């Protein structure tokens, strides 16, 4: 919690663009990071074994202080989201309540036992040789049936929440009970795997890295707002709070809305945006056939920008106006049809830019790879050393980070209400956009002599990015307001 | 596992016969314990009274550790049963299944569902909407369906006439009935939907 409260921001001369940097220099920069990086978030990247150790510590603590078996402790911890202290306090007050809440015990008095084992209600067998057992609820069934019940449940992916076989009985089977009945090694393994996954999911401080086949886990202490975590293994940037790709300045709820919307509408959106646009002057339908956004209408020779459909002549002079969405003021005759079209137009405006930056990010990923070989060539040719070229490498990484933030400003703007705040946001967004394009241009063409110029540009772009995040990332806004109180 | 399933099914058929409830019937189809045919009667004091409803019951390999798959073969107008597929929304057929439950208890639960619908957890949204907004219309419609599909007592005579009317316009009988039921037996609305 302390990481959050001592986050203060100052405008200092930012040559801290390396803070994303390598894992090793993490500690060194910690103090600076929390001050200069508006997205700074304290977390750790853990391996499966480390998490197992962490969980086992909680389990041990609870089983020692309450004098219960570790497997019972697991059931209770799972139910109480691993808050051992809360459990211990509540247990002292009313042990019975804790056991009922965790479904270790039944809330109704235990069933009259047929513990003598004459008849199993599941397999309908009356075999005197068969052994019977029951959970705390006292519902006795034969051991063969228990084994089969567990096997079926485990194969369906259930682990911590396997229940008794009696109707309407919600008592859960603890680990030792399950394992004493299941003998197949493959099923036992599966059970342990699912248990671990289930434990992590129920633990508010833990989250799996969602990267494909990634074995790392994150641990952090705050689980709300856009929280950036970067995986040590696969380098994926995700949000600790919601598990989606990292999305500052957009918040978790909004990004979910946006991503669902994109998934639903993007087919239509792709078709419309990819195939047709009307010439803003003569309205003739135009299909884009090249990469350049400077378009000239084949019919009326009008020059315009493909992205914003504005006149090319007044484009690009002041700040990059193209990123701002303007609502059509002549929309007085708002028939339903026109409104729907306007809504689609608005969505497409933001979607196109969102997609465009996503694509640029992918392309710049390739640039990064090319850059490495380019630097190698230069070094081999005796033009400076690796250290001399380090700045170029840093700038490409910074570019990636800036563009990433820029991409996620579009869903934010889409859901923002009109007003001065949105105007300010879009102004800052336009500024960021312009600086990023400048930087991108410079990175692609950098020679050693440009170093000063490029570093200057890096500084400007990063400043724009942090300013925008400081002003609009809601974890900062909340902090600012709470620190005033 | 199949061994237990077969044994259980045999015993459960006996249980239904012995249980003495005249309202339930259970038998195997084509000598296979995996496919059963159930029959329940509509509970008294409900629009389903006097009707006989057939159920398709499929027993999975892992029975009784997984629930049987049950659906209505007889078409029925009920918020928790799909008027199209006969699929049933009932907790004990899903996550609340317990291995110690039996086919007899399942059939009794379905019967209880007919007497007490759960419109807030609907399987058929159209029916549920009518149930909530116009209960009288729902009752009359459900009784009409019971009469037509489940051999129940005759319902509103006017409804039959309306179906006949659409039939003469060349609409399939069941489709006509669904459309009319959906639009509270307003012939105009139903026609519009059918021909749009």
TrEMBL record, chain A:
InterPro entries: Ariadne, BRcat_RBR_TRIAD1, E3_UB_ligase_RBR, IBR_dom, Rcat_RBR_TRIAD1, TRIAD_supradom, Znf_RING/FYVE/PHD, Znf_RING_CS. Its EC number is 2.3.2.31. It catalyses: [E2 ubiquitin-conjugating enzyme]-S-ubiquitinyl-L-cysteine + [acceptor protein]-L-lysine = [E2 ubiquitin-conjugating enzyme]-L-cysteine + [acceptor protein]-N(6)-ubiquitinyl-L-lysine. The keyword Coiled coil applies. It is an enzyme of class 2 (transferase). GO terms for biological process: protein ubiquitination. Keywords: Coiled coil, Metal-binding, Nucleus, Repeat, Transferase, Ubl conjugation pathway, Zinc, Zinc-finger. SUPFAM superfamilies: RING/U-box (SSF57850). Residues 116-326 form the RING-type domain. One of its GO terms (molecular function) is zinc ion binding. One of its GO terms (cellular component) is nucleus. PANTHER family: RBR FAMILY RING FINGER AND IBR DOMAIN-CONTAINING. Belongs to the RBR family. Ariadne subfamily. This is RBR-type E3 ubiquitin transferase. It comes from Pieris macdunnoughi.
Automatic annotation (TrEMBL), chain B:
Transmembrane segments: none annotated. It comes from the Eukaryota. SMART domains: UBA, UBCc. The active site is at residue 89. Signal peptide: none annotated. Coiled coil: none annotated. The keyword Transferase applies. This is E2 ubiquitin-conjugating enzyme.
